[in-house]
């Protein structure tokens, strides 16, 4: 027996479940298949983001930041105490509870929107057919007019440092430590590496991050990246740039890591080693290539501007098609595709994608850095607003970092916004909206911002582009 659907989505993460919900809202009979199993073998929708990435990591980041503030900041507020301690088991239980609440919410949303949620594996058979294998049950075949691949991605497993799930772990394993490692090594100083390093460093680990590239956060404006590096180093993170790992061997008591810096080989021993060097697309077992779906040399599914593969009726979205591997990018692709299948005209602006590192201070950016703008041939003008001059940041005991605006000197149009500072993740939406509406510096300068707020600093940074800042020294720069 074959079950008939209009749309079958294979993958229930940030790309798949929004695509399924929006498709159902638009009148399509929709099924969403997801194979995720948590470590206790419980199935869950939400993919890596909700179960082993974005959400649990933010829960631990928040907990560890509170601990850090209790140790280093509350005294300035006139608050003192001595009976503070970390209960890691309770901290981990809270993290898991936050994730489970959200993944359970997806099931409720499926029910409310009449999406058929199926827990198990999906395999493409061609001609609009998908084989569904439940975690416990018999296989069945689903038939659909449209099949959407939304299978996400997984951490890259290095041959020189293979995961053993004991001492050498991926980002998921790094969220489930049952005790704080005395010494922690991390390969990769990208978003994941820095966030995980911050969590465990705050909780007491002596943390070393080994990054092969010579520059810290090369995707971020380098003025902001250097500022962030200075703050992280001051907090105790030992970030070693230009450190290329040669091998990592897990022993009974430690992981021995050999790496090279400036041609000199060095060795380091860690209780735990996190490998955070990127992610790869999940296409194994999907049977996509076997039915003719084009896949590139890195394993990503090839699609056109409307997420169509080369096989009629088969589409792909999210991490599995490459680009920025971010949950919000995947969500928007899922919604856009569902609306396109309903005949709507939708388009995403990939030049205005928000990106955030949830450390303290946070790092957030959208659009071009100064380096990227110059490389594209723009004559740029830049401005900066330091949080040291912001009243709200001062009151929060968090007057660190700054906001940098990169604008076109000829048109005044904002090209990029890069920030380091308190809760800049929440300020980023204004920057993204500005890029989306092709805002000029004058547009933002004429927009009133509340006082005292952190958002004032965005206004100050824009004013400083043309030497008009009120609460900071103006340093007009054009190049």
From TrEMBL:
Its EC number is 1.8.1.4. The keyword Flavoprotein applies. Disulfide bonds join 49-54. Keywords: Cytoplasm, Disulfide bond, FAD, Flavoprotein, NAD, Nucleotide-binding, Oxidoreductase, Redox-active center. Its cofactor is FAD. One of its GO terms (cellular component) is cytoplasm. FAD binds at residues 58, 122, 151-153, 319, 325-328. Residues 353-461 form the Pyridine nucleotide-disulphide oxidoreductase dimerisation domain. Residues 5-334 form the FAD/NAD(P)-binding domain. One of its GO terms (biological process) is 2-oxoglutarate metabolic process. Belongs to the class-I pyridine nucleotide-disulfide oxidoreductase family. The active site is a redox-active disulfide bond. This is Dihydrolipoyl dehydrogenase. The gene is lpdA.
């Amino acid at each position: 027996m074959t079950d008939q659907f209009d749309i079958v989505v294979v993958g229930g993460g940030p790309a798949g479940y929004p695509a399924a919900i929006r498709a159902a809202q638009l009148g399509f009979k929709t099924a969403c298949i997801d194979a995720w199993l948590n470590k206790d073998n419980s199935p869950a929708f939400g993919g890596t983001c909700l179960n082993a990435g974005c959400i649990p990591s933010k829960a631990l980041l928040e907990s560890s930041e509170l601990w850090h503030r209790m140790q280093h900041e509350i005294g300035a507020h006139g608050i003192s105490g001595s009976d503070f301690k970390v209960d890691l088991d309770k901290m981990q239980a809270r993290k898991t509870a936050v994730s489970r609440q959200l993944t359970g919410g997806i099931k409720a949303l499926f029910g409310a929107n009449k999406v058929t949620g199926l827990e198990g594996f999906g395999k493409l058979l061609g001609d609009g057919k998908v084989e569904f294998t439940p975690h416990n049950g018999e296989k069945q075949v689903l038939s659909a007019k449209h099949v959407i691949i939304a299978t996400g991605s997984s951490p890259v497993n290095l041959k020189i440092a293979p995961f053993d799930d004991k001492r050498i772990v991926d980002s998921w394993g790094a969220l489930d430590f049952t005790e704080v490692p005395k010494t922690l090594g991390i390969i990769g100083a990208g978003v994941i590496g820095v966030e995980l390093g911050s969590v465990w460093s705050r909780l007491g680990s002596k943390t070393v991050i080994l990054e092969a590239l010579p520059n810290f956060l090369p995707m971020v404006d380098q003025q902001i990246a250097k500022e962030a590096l200075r703050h992280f180093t001051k907090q105790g993170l030992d970030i070693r740039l230009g450190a290329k790992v040669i091998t990592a061997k897990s022993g009974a008591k430690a992981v021995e890591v050999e790496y090279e810096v400036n041609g000199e080989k060095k060795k380091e021993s860690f209780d735990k080693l996190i490998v955070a060097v990127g992610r790869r697309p999940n296409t194994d077992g999907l049977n996509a290539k076997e039915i003719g779906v084009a896949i590139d040399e890195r394993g990503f599914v090839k699609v056109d501007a409307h997420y169509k593969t080369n096989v009629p009726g088969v589409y792909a979205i999210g991490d599995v098609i490459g680009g920025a591997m971010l949950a919000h990018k995947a969500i928007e692709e899922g919604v856009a595709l569902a609306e396109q299948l309903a005949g709507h005209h939708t388009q995403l602006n990939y030049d205005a994608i928000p990106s955030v590192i949830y450390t303290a201070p946070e790092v957030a950016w959208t659009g071009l850095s100064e380096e990227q703008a110059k490389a594209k041939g723009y004559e740029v003008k830049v401005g900066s607003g330091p949080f040291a001059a912001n009243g709200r940041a001062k009151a929060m005991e968090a007057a660190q970092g700054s906001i940098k605006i990169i604008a076109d000197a000829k048109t005044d149009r904002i090209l990029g916004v890069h920030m380091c500072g308190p809760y800049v993740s929440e300020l980023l939406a204004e920057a993204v909206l500005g890029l989306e509406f092709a805002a000029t510096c004058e547009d933002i300068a004429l927009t009133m911002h509340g006082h005292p707020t952190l958002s004032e600093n965005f206004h100050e940074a824009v004013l400083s582009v043309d030497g008009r800042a009120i609460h900071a020294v103006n340093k007009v720069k054009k190049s």
